[in-house]
Amino acid sequence: MSEIRIVQNVLKHNDEIAAMNRQRLRDAGVFWIDLIGSPGCGKTSLLETTLRRLHGRIQIGIIAGDLATDRDAKRIQACGAKVVQINTGKGCHLDANQVRHALDEIDLTGLDLLIIENVGNLICPVGFDLGQDAKVGMFSVCQGDDKAAKHPHLVRAADLLILNKTDLLQHVRFHPVTFRDDVEKLNPDVAIMELSVTESRVDPWLDWLISKTAKAQAQTGNGSPEPTPLIQGGI
Ligand SMILES: Nc1nc2c(ncn2[C@@H]2O[C@H](COP(=O)(O)OP(=O)(O)OP(=O)(O)O)[C@@H](O)[C@H]2O)c(=O)[nH]1
Ligand SMILES: [Mg+2]
Count of domains in the chain? Predict the structure, then answer.
């Protein structure tokens, strides 16, 4: 029994700090995302492409979570973005307190969007609220079409799902219909964006970011409420 109580206390403490983070970013008019996906699904690649494509249009900050190394931070820095790397050591996810300290390192003034690349893991990060506006779950076709069904908690918690590496569909056994059906059963409301980051087929994602960022700014009276989409029909 005491073990269960301790876990609940940890989560309660986490949620309290997450609420503070949420308020801090809301006050600053920054839209922020917790990006969760398995190791190697293309999270940092997506951030690199996003930074290049939205350069001069949206000011973006990044927090990168990894067990070890600052390699992702260096890749992101090379794109000209403000980035803070969190090394979790043996920790398999980021928590709200780590993010709170990382936020101290970022000047939120003038920032429009903050993206957190969580530790590559489809399980542990899902249960820890960071205070984010949206959780984005990221899969790739290389992992197999059963991964949505095998990771229901992420699918249920996600505000948006990305299916990446669709350029490799012809080379791997992945049936998009199976993946989509599994997602539909778990979370009928969530949109799935099929992207290829290496081919820069990411326009629906960029439009989504532009739209969400503008809405967050409109709520604090900072920005334009009517963003121009990159493509017509973006989600
Ligand atoms: N073919 C293909 N390869 C991709 C795509 N996106 C990323 N990759 C490759 O996938 C590998 C892993 O990409 P990363 O961006 O480092 O993946 P990550 O999710 O950030 O990895 P971790 O941070 O280690 O969890 C790299 O070799 C990328 O070039 C894609 O759309 N298509
Ligand atoms: Mg990465």
Answer: 1
